[in-house]
Structure formats: structure tokens, C-alpha cells
Amino acid sequence: MLNMAVSVGGTAVRSRRPSAPRDAGTITAVAWSPVQDIAVSDWIRAGQRLGAMTRCSQWWLGDWVRYGTRRWGEKYKEAARITGYDVHSLRNIAYVARQVESSRRRDDLTWSHHAEVSSLEPIEQDRWLDLASAEKMSVLDLRVELRAARRKSKAQEVPAASPASKEIAGRVMCPECEHEFEVPAAAPGGP
User: Fold this and answer.
1) Are 117 and 124 within 8 A, CB to CB?
2) How many helices (H) does the chain have, and how many strands (E)?
3) Tens-of-pLDDT digits for all 191 residues of the chain?
4) Are 128 and 106 in contact (CB under 8 A)?
């Protein structure tokens, strides 16, 4: 049997496949079941451990893929064979792990929260992750807020005038064919 000890948020999480005798439940690849009738406190502790492990698993996998890539070059097909994940998923997981350095990762937010901000600059990642944490935002709430901020930012951008651009004073219509024409504004100092 494989023993595994992991520290999550300062708490040691121990797992043993297929069962964890010190835990209230048995864990297999496809199930958790109590070892006997358990007290609510044991059920809560088991849930906390399971939650901590699942919140960390994509980070662990992403960092593992990144290490293999740095050490031996691109090995996504091999990593897919080893883990059972498809290459595309592994690339996405490794991308987020690469973009969000471990020092900026928040253990009170999900991996998906971090994925939402992974394309931003580090200082913006921190700002949005801090906000999501403080406001206890869901991933959907964070996504909506990010999109609104991007739309607002784009709306505030003023397009630079190119030398070929011209200001339009108005439109006139040809009385014979009713085609509309734009009338350019007069140049400064001109007629």
C-alpha cells in the first residue's frame, strides 16, 4: 500500500490507498465510504481532508508536469499516459501552475479561481485573488466581474487617430440617386 502525507494549509493530510485506518472512511479511486457508523465530528474531519486534497490536486499535477517539462523537455504525451489525463487538460493545468506562482496561490480559493486570473499580470492576479477571497466570490462571480472590468477598460480606451483618418462633419445625400456621402471636416487653418 502507498502511504502519502501532505501538508495542506498547515494541516497534515494523510492518505493510504485503499484505506486510511486513522480516518473515518475508506478511499478508493472511485469512492469514499465510512469504515463504520461515525460521529458527525469524524464526518466533518473527513470532509475537510477530502476538500483539502481535491483543492490541491490540480496544483500538484501542474507543478509535477512543469518539473518534468523543465527537467526532460516536453513530455505531455508521456504525462497523459501516466496520469490518465488528456494532453490538452495537462497543458491547461500546467499553464495555470506556471502563470500563478506558488507564492500567490490562495488556499481558500479553488484552482478554478486561479485559472480565471492566470492570463493577468502578477499584480492584477493578486488584486483579483484578494478581492475574490475577501468577498467570498464563486468562480462564476469572479468571471463576471473580470469580464465587466475588461469591457469597462476597452470602453475607456481612446483609439489613436491615424494619419489616414479624417473627421466627419456630417452626411449629405445626392438628390438624384439618394446615395449618402460623408463630408470631411475642414482642416485647421483651412477653408
Assistant:
1) yes
2) 6, 6
3) 333 444 444 444 444 444 333 568 888 878 888 888 888 888 888 888 887 887 789 999 999 999 999 999 888 999 999 999 999 999 999 999 999 999 999 989 999 999 999 999 999 999 999 999 999 999 999 999 999 999 988 888 765 555 555 555 666 666 666 666 676 666 555 55
4) no
The single residue listed with the C-alpha cell 477653408 is 191
Backbone angles phi, psi at 17, to 5 degrees: -95, 135
Write out the E strands in the chain. 3-8, 11-16, 25-27, 32-34, 168-173, 180-184
**Rg of the chain on CA atoms, in Å:** 28
Measured CA to CA, the distance from residue 58 to residue 93 in angstroms comes to: 7
Strands 32-34 and 25-27, sheet pairing? antiparallel
Calpha distance 88→114 (Å, rounded):
18
Question: Residue holding cell 502578477?
Answer: 122
What is the three-class DSSP state of 103?
helix
Residues in the chain: 191
Cα separation, 115 vs 92, whole angstroms = 9
Residue from 30, 34, 29, 5 nearest 17 by CA: 29
Q: From the CB of residue 132, how many other CB atoms can be counted at a distance below 10 Å?
A: 24
Determine the Cα–Cα distance for residues 191 and 178; give it in Å rounded to an integer. 27
